[in-house]
Amino acid sequence: MNRDLVFVYIETTVEDTYALLHEKNIRQLPIVDKLGKIKSMISQKNILDLIINDLDNSKHSMLKTLDNLGLPEVITADPMADIRRVAKVMVDFNLNAIPIVTDEEMLVGIVSRTDILKTVASVPPMQLWA
């Protein structure tokens, strides 16, 4: 789990969100309210779809705030969740990352596919004993 969080507030514009994604070289961000509660996730794909679906008004689309996009609810995990279960949910729902939240829905971390691959790659090989 990555605790060095990059996120955006729900009042952030699409343009500022895209700039942050580009600056940090990441593909998606958690969206939180002013209290730090998770609201949704936004990805580069969400932004590109928004622009492509309304090419004539792309500048207007970029000035919208995230709370006006109608993004879907987010699937989250508990900080004590088993990494195998998190990986299974990511595969089942074709997710690239899952926010980690407390019982109060406060964002405390994020697990990405890269995090899972690093974990699997660092596990020593199994040994069979006869």
Structure description:
- The protein is α+β, with helices and mostly antiparallel strands and 130 residues long.
- A hairpin with a 5-residue loop joins strand 4 (97-101) and strand 5 (107-112).
- It has helices spanning 14-24, 44-53, 58-62, 83-92, 113-122; strands at residues 8-9, 28-32, 38-43, 97-101, 107-112.
- The longest helix is centred in the first third of the chain and has 11 residues, at 14-24.
- The termini are far apart.
- The strands form 2 sheets. Strands 1-2-3 form a 3-stranded mixed β-sheet. Strands 4-5 form a two-stranded antiparallel ribbon.
- The radius of gyration is 17 Å and the shape is elongated.
- The chain contains 5 helices and 5 strands.
How does the major sheet shape up?
Answer: 3 strands, mixed
Strands ordered across the widest β-sheet: 1-2-3
- Helix percent reads 25-40%
Q: How many individual β-strands?
A: 5
Model regions low in confidence, pLDDT < 50 over at least 5 residues: none
- Secondary structural class: alpha+beta
Figure out the total of helices: 5
State the end-to-end CA separation: 36 Å
Sheet-strand content, in percent, reads 15-25%
Tell me, rounded to a whole number, the average pLDDT: 89
Give the SSE string.
EHEEHHHEEH
Overall 3D geometry? elongated
